[in-house]
Amino acid sequence: MDGHECPDVVEYRDNIFLPAMAKFKACMVQYESLDLKQSEPRLQHSHGEIIVLYHNESCFHANDFHGGHVVWL
Q: For a designed S-S bond to 27, which of 19, 22, 50, 71 qualifies (C-beta 3.0 to 4.6 A apart)?
């Protein structure tokens, strides 16, 4: 188990993170179909556009090795 299946992680993902992302979706640009047609967000008066910046674990580990033996592609 790498931690992604731990009960507390699954509960947080299912009950907090995913419902929050579903609420934010209306404020984000959507890309549809194979040609990635852009669909503008439906903003309310009190909401601004949300721009999500995704990352993966390599972003955090890119500078962990200073010996010059590892190349991140």
A: 50
